[in-house]
Design brief:
Radius of gyration: 12 Å
CATH architecture: 2-Layer Sandwich
CATH class: Alpha Beta
Number of helices: 1
Order of helices and strands: EEEEHE
Oligomer: single chain
Number of domains: 1
Helix content: 25-40%
CATH topology: Double Stranded RNA Binding Domain
Length: about 70
Protein backbone atom coordinates (compact mmCIF):
# COMPACT_ATOMS: atom_id res chain seq x y z
CA UNK A 1 0.00 0.00 0.00
CA UNK A 2 1.40 3.42 -0.92
CA UNK A 3 0.39 6.65 0.79
CA UNK A 4 1.52 10.21 0.10
CA UNK A 5 1.34 12.91 2.76
CA UNK A 6 1.92 16.65 2.84
CA UNK A 7 4.80 17.66 5.06
CA UNK A 8 5.64 20.88 6.87
CA UNK A 9 9.38 21.56 6.93
CA UNK A 10 10.84 24.26 9.18
CA UNK A 11 14.35 25.27 10.19
CA UNK A 12 14.99 26.75 13.62
CA UNK A 13 17.52 29.45 14.50
CA UNK A 14 20.18 26.83 15.30
CA UNK A 15 19.87 25.15 11.90
CA UNK A 16 17.89 22.07 12.92
CA UNK A 17 15.32 21.01 10.34
CA UNK A 18 11.96 19.72 11.60
CA UNK A 19 9.34 17.81 9.63
CA UNK A 20 5.71 17.44 10.68
CA UNK A 21 3.07 15.42 8.85
CA UNK A 22 -0.38 16.94 9.50
CA UNK A 23 -2.24 13.78 8.41
CA UNK A 24 -0.15 11.72 10.87
CA UNK A 25 0.37 14.06 13.85
CA UNK A 26 1.89 11.30 15.99
CA UNK A 27 5.02 11.43 13.83
CA UNK A 28 7.66 14.12 13.43
CA UNK A 29 11.37 14.15 12.68
CA UNK A 30 14.39 16.41 13.16
CA UNK A 31 17.85 16.42 11.64
CA UNK A 32 20.73 18.66 10.61
CA UNK A 33 19.70 18.67 6.94
CA UNK A 34 16.42 18.82 5.05
CA UNK A 35 17.24 15.58 3.23
CA UNK A 36 17.95 13.72 6.48
CA UNK A 37 14.84 15.08 8.17
CA UNK A 38 12.65 13.98 5.25
CA UNK A 39 14.26 10.52 5.24
CA UNK A 40 13.74 10.17 9.00
CA UNK A 41 10.12 11.33 8.65
CA UNK A 42 9.42 8.84 5.86
CA UNK A 43 10.86 5.97 7.92
CA UNK A 44 8.98 7.05 11.03
CA UNK A 45 5.66 7.37 9.19
CA UNK A 46 6.13 3.96 7.58
CA UNK A 47 6.90 2.33 10.92
CA UNK A 48 3.99 4.04 12.67
CA UNK A 49 1.48 3.19 9.94
CA UNK A 50 2.61 -0.45 9.82
CA UNK A 51 1.89 -0.64 13.54
CA UNK A 52 -1.51 1.03 13.06
CA UNK A 53 -2.38 -1.43 10.27
CA UNK A 54 -1.28 -4.44 12.34
CA UNK A 55 -3.58 -3.42 15.18
CA UNK A 56 -6.55 -2.79 12.89
CA UNK A 57 -6.36 0.98 13.06
CA UNK A 58 -7.29 3.42 10.32
CA UNK A 59 -4.57 4.48 7.88
CA UNK A 60 -5.06 8.12 6.82
CA UNK A 61 -5.82 8.62 3.14
CA UNK A 62 -3.16 10.22 0.97
CA UNK A 63 -3.42 13.99 0.87
CA UNK A 64 -0.70 15.07 -1.64
CA UNK A 65 2.48 13.93 -3.38
CA UNK A 66 5.01 14.71 -0.64
CA UNK A 67 6.20 11.59 1.18
CA UNK A 68 5.74 8.11 -0.25
CA UNK A 69 5.24 5.42 2.39
CA UNK A 70 5.11 1.70 1.61
CA UNK A 71 3.19 -0.15 4.34
Amino acid sequence: MIRRYRVEVTTDNTGWVSVKIPAVPEVHAEAHTREQALQFAARSVASHLRSVAETGGRIPDSDVDAIVVDI
